[in-house]
């Protein structure tokens, strides 16, 4: 079942912002298998898909995103799906339509068990993970997950169990200089050159180190500035990625950037602000390795595959940050082996996807 689902999901183009068709596909599949489906509209982007399975004991949220990045150049395989041995190629195959297919197949399989042998399960497929996580945020904001005890996200982790991730701020840095004739640059203050000095010094900032998440990082994503004719440019702007760990907040980031400006004796006025986004900040989170749900997952993994999964922590962000912080529930991330995420010839291991589905089913059964 999961392989047929994977083929169907990958055959549907669903770049973030255009998830209408794939949400209809998933809703129809679930309805055909006897589930009552709820569609939750999200800012004109498409619909989150929600289905519930009553059981006993704990309530588990199964979550995956339906969207992909846009198609890049350089593909030598069919981006709408191509099988070669154990590898299934296609845009979104690894990130994360294979995980989504495994979650859907596990949801259907667990529904066949007697009610007393399964937990309460809420299946959720969301839009816009690759954009601003508006689907996940709308799901949380709606209150539909308030009774959840644990969240399982099917992002690709190469069959490793991810128990936390760094967070992220997107920072806007502006430098205001002084205009003058470009033939007499000493009479002005070149904002582009000063901003260049600033971003070239970001490496000097010392980061807080977290024992699980490691350290944060800076990466300049965009820089712009221009002259008005033959003039010294008096304004320049940069957009900078700042990944953070637990213990780092916006005030700390703003303060360290202002201190860097003082340290390098930056000329001109500096303004630091958050780059505006339609959803809240993506904050870091960690799940305890001895959490009861983690222990159940380890046991289920051992029962299916003969050993416990390697524990990892994410370097970047995703919908899991929202579930782990704003929903405030233990959020486990586990998915199949794959490669070339967001790039050409993205692929996923079919056998790995099948193993992952079996682990999902065993985990759900073990919660009762």
At a glance:
30% of the residues lie in helices and 26% in strands. With 368 residues, the protein is an alpha+beta fold.
Describe the protein.
With 368 residues, this protein is α+β, with helices and mostly antiparallel strands. The chain is built from nine helices and 19 strands. Strands 1-2-6-3-7-17 form a six-stranded mixed sheet, with helices on both faces. Strands 4-5-19-18 form a four-stranded antiparallel sheet. Strands 12-13-9-14 form a four-stranded antiparallel sheet. Strand 4 (82-84) and strand 5 form a beta hairpin. Helix 3 (93-111) packs across helix 9 (350-366). It is elongated, with a radius of gyration of 23 Å. The two termini are 25 Å apart. The mean pLDDT is 96.
Topology:
Layout: H1 2-11, H2 20-32, E1 37-41, E2 47-53, E3 59-65, E4 82-84, E5 87-89, H3 93-111, E6 120-126, H4 134-141, E7 150-153, E8 161-165, E9 167-176, H5 191-199, E10 209-210, E11 214-215, E12 217-225, E13 235-244, H6 250-263, E14 269-274, E15 285-286, H7 292-305, E16 311-314, H8 319-325, E17 331-333, E18 338-339, E19 347-349, H9 350-366
Parallel strand pairs: 3-6, 3-7, 7-17, 8-16
Antiparallel strand pairs: 1-2, 2-6, 4-5, 5-19, 8-15, 9-13, 9-14, 10-11, 12-13, 18-19
Helix pairs in contact: 1-3, 3-9, 7-9
